[in-house]
Amino acid sequence: MLKVSQLAAGYGRIPILSNVNFEIETGDFIGILGHNGMGKTTLLKALMGFLPATGGSVTFDGADITGAEPFRRARAGMGYVPQGREIFPGLSVRDNLRMACTGGRGAEAAILDDVLAEFPRLKRLIERPGGALSGGEQQLLAMARCLCGRPRLLLLDEPTEGIQPSIIEEIAETLLRLREKGGLTMILVEQNLDFIASLSQRVLIIQKGTIVRAAKPDELHDIGLVGEFIGITA
Fold it and tell me: pLDDT (tens digit, 9 = 90+) per residue, 100-134?
């Protein structure tokens, strides 16, 4: 589905990513781990087209999308949930979701029904302003809004940050159910080791903007590996 070859990107003249290489097949869930500042979020932004590639290539479903704008990648089937959620706080839950149904990938009512069936907690909050939701509820809304675009590849950045444990479990269950039902594919940036291990089939470790190794989920319990490559407590 996605092939990343020697990808390089950065901010202005400041290079962040260099020689990033990996592939992901339909239905795979892969995690991205690394110290803060190693390029995890930059990688997702570059994959989604918010940062231009300065080298290498990105191929999606056999098509070269290296220079494609974000909206073209979204129409091709890519979705992005940024760190910090970035919902519309003044709009209701319903209208937040409706905003994501404007791309013409199906009838709005049918999309909303399908998405709300996967996020029953949001049904009870449908008329509440996004800004009045808890942090966990906002994260669910951000994910649901992204899924209104019916992506086949989901890029998810730090979804458990500041979230209560009950909703973390709900997020994990929802993502696994979507993979089983519809073949959703996901790239997950996350610092919660239990969460990323429970979802990922493999974990890519990034250092100084380069993927340095792949780990199996059960290797995340190796204190030596976690300390050397990730820098957080297992």
Answer: 887 655 688 899 999 999 999 999 999 999 999 99
Domains and CATH numbers, the chain: 1-77+186-234 (3.40.50.300)
Q: Distance between CA atoms of 64 and 217, rounded to whole angstroms?
A: 30
Quickly tell me which residue has 């087209």 as its tokens: 49
Retrieve residue 61's tokens: 């479903």
Nearest to 233 by CA among 188, 203, 194: 194
Q: Is the pLDDT of residue 48 over 60?
A: yes
Euclidean distance between CA atoms 2 and 68, whole angstroms: 14
DSSP-derived 3-state class of residue 95: helix
What pLDDT is stored for residue 58 in this prediction?
98
Count the residues in the chain.
234
Give me the phi and psi of 57, to 5 degrees please: -150, 155
CA distance 27 to 185: 4
Does the pLDDT value for residue 234 go beyond 60? no
Q: Residue 40 above 60 pLDDT?
A: yes
* Residue 230 Ramachandran class (φ > 0 left, ψ -120 to 50 alpha, else beta): alpha
**pTM of the shown model:** 0.90
**Summary mean pLDDT of the chain:** 90
**What sign does the dihedral 224-225-226-229 (CA atoms) show?**
positive
Rounded distance between C-alpha atoms, residue 32 and residue 42, angstroms: 12
